[in-house]
Amino acid sequence: MDFESYIRDIEDFPKKGITFKDITPLLNDTEALYSASIALCDFVCDEKIDKVVGVDSRGFIFAPLMALWLKAGFVPVRKKGKLPFTTISESFELEYGTDILEIHMDAIQKGEKVLVHDDVLATGGTAKAVCNLVEKLGGEVVQCNFLIQLTFLNGAEKLNGYDIKALLNY
Q: Residue 18: how many CA atoms within 13 Å on its side-chain side?
């Protein structure tokens, strides 16, 4: 399937000079959504996955779908203060400052095989913070997968040593 035809560019969003990759046309099409979900799962091949971690907020779209296909649990990673139970946190650098992500302290057990998913790999800071959280809890990151990778931002460099897969590369 030509997934790229379902991605539209929005110029100057969220600010001037940025071209936003809008995935909503893909989400609105039943066949494209279904096919993308399966294609993302296919990246992990026959690897046994215990948990699929989805990153706040667009990572929450495909991660639960993949968890169902892979017969795994779904774990949300959210911005600070959004999870109701006891959490651990990880700070990471943004273009203009820092942010904090959190995960429930009981979300991943030692030795569990984990797939990390987000919609876009840009600079890599968010994905690296999520990998750190998984490893703090004793999980093993099997793969980081994304719907889109913006290769010109070199985010994969921050994820050196992790298996990285993306459905679309720009």
A: 10
What the chain holds in terms of domains, given with CATH numbers, is 45-169 (3.40.50.2020)
**Is 31 known to be catalytic?**
no
Catalytic residue among 58, 78, 102, 140: 58
Give the tokens for residue 108. 């991943």
- Which token pair is 39? 């294609």
Is 8 labeled as catalytic in the residue annotation? no
Q: How would you write the pLDDT of the chain (170 residues) with one tens digit per residue?
A: 999 999 999 999 999 999 999 999 999 999 999 999 999 999 999 899 999 999 999 999 999 999 999 999 999 999 999 999 999 999 998 767 899 999 999 999 999 999 999 999 999 999 999 999 999 999 999 999 999 999 999 999 999 999 999 999 99
The structure's pTM equals 0.96
Q: Name the catalytic one among 95, 135, 140, 157.
A: 95
SS (H, E, C) 54-98: EECCCHHHHHHHHHHHHCCEEEEEEECCCCCCCEEEEEEEECCEE
